[in-house]
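Journal club prep — side note

Before the paper discussion, L.F. wants everyone to see what a predicted structure for a comparable chain looks like in token form. Sequence:
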Amino acid sequence: MDYEILAEGLRFPEGPIAMEDGSVILVEIARGTLTRCWNGKSEIIANIGGGPNGAAIGPDGAVYICNNGGTTHVERDGILVPTTTSPDYVTGRIERVDLKTGKVERVYDKVGDFQLRGPNDLVFDKAGNFWFTDYGKDQHRSRDKSGIYYASPNGSKVTEVAYGSSGYNGIGLSPDEKTLYAAETSVGRLWAIDIVGQGEIERGRRWLPGRAIATMPGQPLRYFDSLAVTASGGVCVATLLDSGITSIAPDGSYDFVATPDRFTTNIAFGGKDMRDAFITFSATGKLAKARWAEPGLKLNFNG
């Protein structure tokens, strides 16, 4: 596959949002910013701090961000790699950024009595609320469990939907919004979870929500990161280490497209025909564009 490099010199970019004007808004985790890339250049919209991760346009036109609270990165030979929790970490949180003013507001940092640890990715439904993952934080000798949450963008309500995973990362909705998809990173597993009401899921066996529709058995080391859904209902999962995009059909069959960056972390669709795929090559600090074989699903509130 051919890739056009739209921006370079980024500091671990993730969370790309394809905008109607042709620009791409993304976060730079290691720089702590929300950044717009356009016409071969980039400009900072807002200094967020911590570790801005997933990003999405909300019903009010603002960008909502999953902030993991901060991660230490190590750079060797031009390659930037995340390691453990930043020493100045205080809390994970959900934040709102006004695109006109750059003002950053904290929406959530707790669910009930429990602190958010490392919010990672989010997706808005048609009702204007959002599902998000909390990946947790890595310490030198320990690791948090992970959860899925459902929240109102106005800060009035957030609920825990599932908890106990080794690390929920990317999250997305099927075209009919009856299925929630969640990627589990270190086991390379994609979960499909049936939605039975607003913010409600069908409970699976024991503590496991939904069903695992794809894993990577017998493959080279492949970790799952963020994801995007196609218009036909397929799920494209950014895949780390043995890097690329894993395209998974609802029946669990999959294809794999290799990419040149071992930390290929996100894919988002845009363009007039929704076949422009915007992919973050995070370790080398690049935003790439490719033409995808099929159109992506247009997200709620993007334009």
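L.F.'s comment for the group: The chain has a mean pLDDT of 95. Keep this in mind when we get to the figures.
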